[in-house]
């Protein structure tokens, strides 16, 4: 078998494996959502609002969740009718509406965070080194999907101007200047409230250092 043919088969197997994981995640998401009287999309919006800790406009919610404006509007209207969120005028623009959680919505959001626990159980069967390699691989894939425009940009450490990347994280961890903490590979964040996007040249430098460690 040629090296190219093997690479194509390996890519296909990885893709198929990810699709199988997606099937499990979709099934579990709907099972949880139905028990909570919500849809997975509504649960995702609740979690996003809880994680951001601030009111978000409809456009911001649509961008962060990669939903259409119409789907976002419908989901938000339903959540408002259920008393899980409330609309307020945005502080920076009184003409725009922003959405925030109610007390009831915060409780629902905390429950929504628990539905992926079945994945945590499976991941716990991996050793520490395996988890680190797996997470590094996922970060690289997420970054590529962002570059391709297939998923929205995350507030991740690897695109933040505050990160001082290490050329060998096992010997000397990465450093976050904003929080003043050291970070191993598995501690790098996908969504951080202290995130400030680095310029293009800095991002390329960070990713080059990160990629060379694999």
TrEMBL record:
InterPro entries noted in UniProt: ArsR-like_HTH (IPR011991), HTH_MarR-typ (IPR000835), MarR/SlyA-like (IPR039422), WH-like_DNA-bd_sf (IPR036388), WH_DNA-bd_sf (IPR036390)
Domain HTH marR-type per the UniProt entry, residue ranges: 11-143
GO terms, molecular function: DNA-binding transcription factor activity
UniProt-listed GO biological process terms: response to stress
Domain of life of the source: Bacteria
PROSITE patterns, A to Z: HTH_MARR_2
SUPFAM superfamilies reported in the protein's UniProt record: Winged helix' DNA-binding domain
Full protein name: MarR family transcriptional regulator
Lineage: Bacteria, Pseudomonadati, Pseudomonadota, Betaproteobacteria, Burkholderiales
